[in-house]
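Protocol step 4 of 6: structure prediction from sequence.
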Amino acid sequence: MNFQGPLAIVLSVFAYMTAVYLVAQAKSDYSVVDVAWGPGFVLVGILSLLLSPVMTIRGVISALMVGLWGMRLGYHIMKRNWGKEEDFRYRQMRENWEGRAYLISYVRIFLVQGLLMLVISYPLIMINFLPKEGIGLFGYLGIVVWLVGFGFEVIGDYQLSDFIKNRKSDDNRIMTEGLWNYTRHPNYFGEALLWWGVYLLTVSVPYGWAGVVSPIAIGYLLLYVSGVPPLEKRYADDEEYQEYAKRTNKFFPWFPEDKI
């Protein structure tokens, strides 16, 4: 494998995250990085296709899958955050870091997210720089898994946005219908699942097994770091949410306890 292409992608991702950091500093709002997260994967997809020694149907499909997910996520977060203050997580970080925030944030928020972006998109890079013709059984299975995961994420996000937009009082503050009746975090479950779909497209390429680092990494982040934990902590003292939590699975969808 020629390493010039992957190296160009690595350098491009860190240049992209540096540009995002400069925008965030100018706006005094680190939430910009959340909007930039999805489109960063689109950048990796485009570059991996353009720099690939051979363009294959497997490479095109995987880039389209990741690109569609990334653009949709970026638009969704931008629409959700438009006109709002900086996310409470980043405000807290800024306060904790005080006068050193400009330097610490560059490393711990922006460069770390750039590194994670490369780790998670590793299967996409492998597919395009260790190309193999055709799709294969695991590839078709991966497409199906991706579609299910993408559907969970999109529908979950839509249902939550619609609930927030149309609720008539603060008495009903917790979304418990639709997919949210089966898991407290359907959007995060969907995101984790779709990356398993991308990985399955990698299985039959040379050294494809190594791509498993991608779904494991995104699953760990969502379950234990930046996805589920902050939200669960935020509602730890909310009685309505705790009642909802008693009957509804945290992550993997299943029937609520009161319906079993």
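Step 5 (inspection) to follow. The radius of gyration is 19 Å.
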